[in-house]
Automatic annotation (TrEMBL):
<keyword id="KW-0408">Iron</keyword>
<keyword id="KW-0411">Iron-sulfur</keyword>
<protein>
    <submittedName>
        <fullName>Radical SAM protein</fullName>
    </submittedName>
</protein>
<dbReference type="InterPro" id="IPR007197">
    <property type="entry name" value="rSAM"/>
</dbReference>
<keyword id="KW-0479">Metal-binding</keyword>
<dbReference type="InterPro" id="IPR058240">
    <property type="entry name" value="rSAM_sf"/>
</dbReference>
<dbReference type="Pfam" id="PF04055">
    <property type="entry name" value="Radical_SAM"/>
</dbReference>
<keyword id="KW-0949">S-adenosyl-L-methionine</keyword>
<feature type="domain" description="Radical SAM core">
    <location>
        <begin position="104"/>
        <end position="314"/>
    </location>
</feature>
<dbReference type="InterPro" id="IPR013785">
    <property type="entry name" value="Aldolase_TIM"/>
</dbReference>
Length: 447
């Protein structure tokens, strides 16, 4: 049930949206004027000032991104993004989260990532999802339980991964429809996206997609299989036609970094309709991992500079999940900002950390947040004073070893259980190689 605060905020934001949509760039500054007069938004004054400056400068790349929002997205999506994402997840939910943290003395995240299924119609080289246990899925009641208990704690953002979430199209649409105050985002290989599915997503408005793509045809098909790139391009056209929010989700590794970090490729993705782009780096998880795919320190530094440059100039929200640790004070896992629940129900600190003490089928969400491994995370974050070395596995392998051993967490890799010592044996060289580069960047003036 929606709270009174949420009902009032939704009604007010609906009015504000109707007014703004009439002439967005002219009316946005007036909405900001009005918002600044409300006492309760004191906390957001800096954000409002930033929006004011953006709204006054048509050359600004964020101004252009806002224009794309109004020009390219369908009206339902525009409204749902504003209310579900900005208001419910960003404002209403955040104050409940703050209270929940205090009450339970544990991390409470802003977003929950869960895998509706481990099944996938592709088999990408070096993908850990392939090793989770192919036939496993979260039943619908468990997914509903995660969201219901999440909302009680103030969480309105749900991210689906896998496996391939669109293998279960009907159920994920039903989840979005039955939780129409939440925002959903699905990672997807996009090969199952068609017109009928996109029409339903357009009708609901509270669903976005992070489309996996690894460069142009050669780089994408190299890991994902022949013909995948073309299917991804077709899917982007379908999503764009329906005015749905989507962006690229790209794993950079030793073989594709120069391509996916190039201006030409980013411009092409924006031209296809991407409103955001998320970069991840290759992690050697599981026994089928390919450590040679780990990006070199030079490549990681290259991405550090490129993403900062593009973020300041392109009408697209770009993030690099490893090199942007400085904006979020290091690692966001363990419930600090997010957690992961795999298709078997194991509650893990992060999609890349396959260790857990608890299963969501046996415990409530709050108990999972207070489980030993999560409490170890809370105690130890940040894992490094240098936020360009944020990760307890990839950058500080001794930290994940210590936390897993102290908490007694077990491996959640269903088909090829891996000890934390086996895992970190693969990441120690990468951590040692990156350290001097990260320390030099951290010591130099940065944003
Ligand atoms: S555990 Fe590593 S990969 Fe996961 S959020 Fe933290 S820094 Fe990122």
């Amino acid at each position: 049930m929606k709270s009174v605060k949420q009902l009032v905020s939704t009604a007010v934001m609906n009015e504000a949206y109707q007014y703004m949509a009439k002439d967005p760039m002219k009316n946005l500054p007036k909405i900001i004027d009005w918002a600044e007069k409300i006492k309760k938004v004191d906390y957001y004054q800096n954000t409002l000032q930033m929006f004011r400056e953006i709204a006054q400068d048509p050359e600004n790349n964020w101004n252009q991104l806002i224009q794309r929002y109004f020009n390219e997205l369908n009206p339902t999506t525009q409204k749902k993004f504003l209310i579900n994402f900005m208001v419910n997840a960003g404002m209403v939910g955040q104050s409940v989260i703050d209270k929940s943290k205090e009450k339970y003395d544990c991390n409470v995240p802003w977003a929950i990532l869960f895998d509706p299924t481990a099944a996938c119609n592709l088999h990408c080289t070096g993908c850990w999802a392939a090793e989770y246990g192919k036939g496993i899925s979260l039943d619908y009641a468990t997914m509903q339980k995660i969201i219901r208990q999440g909302k009680e704690l103030g969480i309105y953002m749900y991210i689906l991964s896998g496996g391939e979430p669109t293998v279960r199209k009907d159920e994920i649409l039903r989840l979005a429809e039955e939780n129409d105050d939440c925002m959903f985002l699905s990672f997807t290989n996009a090969t199952l996206i068609d017109d009928a599915f996109a029409s339903e997503v357009e009708r609901l408005g509270n669903f976005a997609f992070a489309v996996s793509v690894e460069g142009y045809e050669e780089e994408t098909d190299m890991r994902r299989g022949k013909g995948t790139y073309q299917k991804v391009m077709d899917a982007m056209d379908i999503l764009q036609k329906h005015g749905i929010i989507f962006g690229f989700s790209t794993c950079y590794h030793s073989k594709n970094t120069e391509v996916v970090g190039s201006e030409e490729w980013v411009d092409d993705m924006i031209a296809k309709g991407c409103k955001f782009g998320w970069y991840f780096t290759y992690m050697p998880i599981g026994k089928d991992a390919v450590p040679e795919l780990i990006a070199t320190p030079e490549q990681r530094e290259f991405m550090y500079h490129q993403v900062r440059k593009f973020r300041a100039t392109k009408p697209c929200f770009l993030m690099d999940f490893w090199n942007d640790g400085e904006y979020v004070k290091g690692c966001i896992a363990g419930g600090r900002n997010y957690l992961h629940i795999n298709a078997g129900g194991d509650v893990e600190p992060c999609a890349f950390i396959h260790y857990s003490n608890v299963n969501i089928k046996d415990v409530d969400l709050i108990d999972a947040l207070r489980s030993p491994l999560f409490m170890e995370y809370k105690k130890s974050q940040p894992f490094n004073e240098n936020h360009l070395r944020p990760c307890p596995m990839f950058d500080n392998p001794e930290k994940i070893r210590e936390m897993v051993n102290k908490s007694g967490a077990h491996s959640t890799q269903l088909e090829d259980s891996e000890t934390v010592e086996e895992l970190t044996a693969k990441t120690i060289p990468a951590a040692e190689n990156w350290k001097p580069f990260a320390d030099k960047l951290w010591a130099s003036p940065h944003e």
